[in-house]
Amino acid sequence: MELAPETLALYATLLAAGIASGFVNTMAGGGSMLTLPALMLLGLPANVANGTNRLSVVAQSLSGVWAFHKAGKLHTEAVLPTVAPAVLGAIAGAAAAAVAPPEVLEPVLLGTMIAVALLMLLRPKVVTGSGEEEPRSAWRHAPSWLGLFGAGLYGGFVQAGVGFVLLAVLGGLMRYDVVRANALKLVCTLVFTLPALGIFVLADQVSWVPASLLAVGTVIGSQLGVRFAIKAGGRVVHVIVVVTVVATCVAALLKE
Q1: Which residue, 73, 120, 145, 226, shows the most beta carbons closer than 10 Å to its own?
Q2: Which pTM does this prediction carry?
Q3: Residues 6 or more apart from 96 whose CB is under 8 A from it?
């Protein structure tokens, strides 16, 4: 079936949004602020766009984890204790999102983004490890466990901006530098998005054609993002994180 030029243009926009999202999410977060509006331009309701977006999150996370691991930036021993509480939170969050009214998503997103933006601007050292400290394990540090559970809860519910929340926990509570925090962030996002995606599939809230196209774009973007993060170093990536979270917060406010 031949596609209309307008539809092709929307698909091209979706692919471009996916590339940009994969790049941004690999180093910071907030890429869903690009992809969710692009999906809604196709006419998808907010809840279906939210579910459709999850396939691209899985794809870009898997791609980014592989690239960080290949570069020796993934702390593999920390994967299980970091992922476990995030998964529990994500399952609860996705279950709540599948039955929640779509209008609930925006206030949750906005409130979380404002809180993270204020922390990163006013107390940057609180949410970023120096790289010289010994990282904490969530098994032995209760605030880290609770922080990861809360990040998973938020990620399962709304997804957009969850990378910022995870970075705040991994850097602020667990004291990872920003590059290694990003590697673990992608592992968490990958693992807790898988059950979340399953829940949205069961709820029939995934549109597979745009989901697949978006996934291709985010994989391309994630590979570019990992290469840039490793070459640029922690200081540059930290600046990108701060700029991105503030921009995401401003975008959410203007949308209101």
Answers
A1: 226
A2: 0.80
A3: 156, 157
Residue 151 contacts residue 198 (beta carbons within 8 Å): no
Ramachandran region of residue 204, left (φ > 0), alpha (ψ -120 to 50) or beta? left
Q: Nearest 5°: CA angle at 20, between 14 and 21? A: 85
| Domain boundary assignment for the chain | 5-255
Read off φ and ψ for residue 123, nearest 5 degrees: -135, 65
Between residues 160 and 185, the one the model is more confident about: 185
Mean predicted lDDT score pLDDT of the chain: 84
Write the pLDDT tens digit of every residue in 136-150: 888 888 999 999 999
The 3-class secondary structure across 87-142, one letter per residue, is: HHHHHHHHHHHHHCCHHHHHHHHHHHHHHHHHHHHHCHHHCCCCCCCCCCCCCCCH
Specify the residue for token string 């840039």: 228
Residue 124 vs residue 174, higher pLDDT: 174
